[in-house]
Amino acid sequence: MSIIHDMIHINTNQNVEVINITSNVNDIIRKHDITNGLVNISTKHTTSSIMINEDEEGLKKDYVKFLEKIVPNDNYLHDRIDNNATSHLKAMLTTPTQTLPIIDGKISLGTWQSIFFVELDGPRSNRTINIMIIGD
User: Fold this and answer.
1) Domain encompassing residue 105
2) Is the Cα dihedral 116, 48, 28, 136 positive or negative?
3) pLDDT tens digits, 41-83
4) Which strand ranges, in their side-by-side order, compose the sheet holding 114-119?
5) DSSP percent split of the chain into helix, strand, coil, nearest 5
6) CATH number of residue 33's parent domain
């Protein structure tokens, strides 16, 4: 049994952006020659999240629109500090981490499932995603 830590670094280009990182995670699993186990994917930022869903452009745009509808721009108290309260509030509605099984050397996902890094306060450079693997 091995415990492995690796990272993915991402630069984002939009204020809210949904970026497929499935191949990045699978590359790390292959790099460390893991056959079976668990992978935990977590963002190190309070204005981003990790999501599992379908990689379809219309759905990703609908998701961004949905978040903007739920958390509209308003006069939030946190904006006095760094003017990004909406980003923090959107992140609170999502999740910073996902844990998935690794079976036969790759992530066990459903037919339409992909793993996404969701930027909620971009554009940003050098966003860090922790990858923790327990497996053999």
Assistant:
1) 2-135
2) negative
3) 999 999 999 999 999 999 999 999 999 999 999 999 999 999 9
4) 17-20, 114-119, 48-53
5) 25, 35, 35
6) 2.60.120.460
What are the DSSP E strand ranges found in the chain?
2-10, 17-20, 37-43, 48-53, 97-103, 106-107, 114-119, 127-135
The tokens of 99 are what? 């844990």
For residue 114, count other CB atoms closer than 10 A to its CB.
19
Give the number of other Cβ atoms within 10 Å of residue 10's Cβ.
19
Grouping H, G, I as helix, E, B as strand and the rest as coil, residue 50 is strand
DSSP H/E element including 55? none
118 to each of 25, 32, 70, 94, how far by Cα in Å? 15, 25, 16, 9
User: In sequence order, what are the residues at sequence separation of 6 or more whose Cβ sits closer than 8 angstroms to the Cβ of residue 11?
Assistant: 123, 124, 125, 126, 127
Number of structural domains (the chain) is 1
Q: Which of 135, 34, 49 is nearest to 98 (CA)?
A: 49
Neighbours of 38 (CB within 10 A): 14
The model carries a pTM of: 0.96
Tell me which residue has tokens 């995603």.
129
